[in-house]
DNA sequence: TTGTCAACTTTACACAATGTAAAGTACGTG
DNA sequence: CACGTACTTTACATTGTGTAAAGTTGACAA
């Protein structure tokens, strides 16, 4: 009964993630997913309205597995505004590679599917909250650069931390994940700190 | 003969651009383009191998109309490295909104089409050349921040000037084109100048 | 034991968009 | 007038999404 129902649904979601994160990247057509899950293609439509619906569900499914909220919340415990900004930047920067593949498909699907667009938009707004909190903490400490007000600084940080920028940095620029994080730390300091730290 | 041939080809390319840049955004299926051009759908396939081929041709067609090379070359005449960087950033920043729509489709198509990916990749590499030239000019003046070597600074500037970042800034952040340019000028100064200028 | 229900399978089809194929038309030029 | 080029028209193959409906299976209840 309900257990079986849930199992099949989970099997499909897991199959979607397996395909999305497989190396080399695999196609994720409805038939690919159903085959991977060991069910019929039609069974997928019993659980998910359409491809966008399945993808959005897979996104939430991955969130649970990664315990997304907890990871990002950790940055809120930092003492100083500067520590908090760096903790947030590092947490998010390390989170991106884990969601990158599914984010890419969701973004791509957003061009044609309203629900997918809305799902991604929500995530981005949540993410902006995190940026705002970090910038506000900096501002509260009086360590935010006078060159920016909090709104502009938030938007700028938000832009810098985009999935596309991670992709460009680690892809086109050929930076390692470590280098990406180092550069992110350096640039956020130079941009947002009232008194930027010099690189060693 | 050849004149007619060229005219039809041009009509198709112009139709593609008209649709791409129309407000509100229109679909650009092969049939939409042919209808807009006033020719049969099959006529399009007489001139272009496939959709990707048409789109790449439309990109070059737009380049000619915008006199792309000349516009970006202008930044090379600046005297100081700082002026040169700002001239380049402004030129490119003003160029993006004019190519944005077609760039977006080309990027999207790059996911599935090898030729489209290659065409976009070439453009991006050309663009990186411009970034490198600007950073090199700064470095030659001794005004490049010691926090970066020229390679890293080039990659960072390259990332900052991406089409995606323009899109995010003017879209999600809701910045005007003027504000986008202002913030770009400010951030590039703060990041790359050995002795950053303070904002007014 | 039989009946019923839900979950799943199987088969079939509609639809949209790309791309191929080939016969037909029309017009300018030798 | 004959010919070739450019274009049109019609038709069809292909791929992937999504809908529809009949058939199967197995657990559970009366």
TrEMBL record, chains A, B:
HTH tetR-type domain mapped to chain residues: 6-66
UniProt entry tagged with the keyword Secreted: no
UniProt xrefs under InterPro entries: Homeodomain-like_sf (IPR009057), HTH-type_TetR-like_transc_reg (IPR050109), HTH_TetR (IPR001647), Tet_transcr_reg_TetR-rel_C_sf (IPR036271)
Pfam families hit by this protein: TetR_N (PF00440)
Keywords of the record: DNA-binding
DNA-binding stretch(es), residue numbering of this chain: 29-48
Stated name of the protein: TetR/AcrR family transcriptional regulator
Organism in which the protein naturally occurs: Parasedimentitalea maritima
């Amino acid at each position: 009964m309900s257990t079986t129902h849930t199992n099949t649904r989970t099997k499909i979601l897991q199959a979607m993630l397996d395909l999305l994160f497989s190396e080399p990247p695999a196609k994720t057509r409805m038939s690919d997913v159903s085959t991977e899950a060991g069910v019929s293609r039609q069974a997928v439509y019993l659980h998910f309205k359409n491809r966008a619906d399945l993808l959005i569900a897979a996104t939430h499914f991955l969130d649970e597995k990664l315990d997304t909220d907890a990871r990002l919340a950790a940055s809120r415990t930092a003492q100083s505004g500067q520590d908090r900004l760096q903790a947030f930047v590092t947490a998010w920067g390390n989170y991106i590679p884990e969601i990158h593949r599914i984010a890419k498909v969701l973004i791509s699907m957003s061009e044609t599917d309203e629900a997918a667009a809305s799902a991604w938009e929500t995530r981005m707004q949540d993410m902006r909250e995190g940026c705002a909190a970090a910038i506000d903490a900096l501002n509260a400490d009086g360590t935010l650069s006078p060159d920016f007000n909090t709104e502009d600084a938030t938007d700028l940080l938000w832009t810098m931390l985009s999935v596309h920028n991670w992709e460009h940095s680690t892809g086109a620029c050929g930076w390692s994940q470590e280098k990406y994080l180092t550069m992110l730390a350096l640039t956020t300091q130079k941009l947002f700190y009232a008194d930027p730290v010099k690189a060693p």
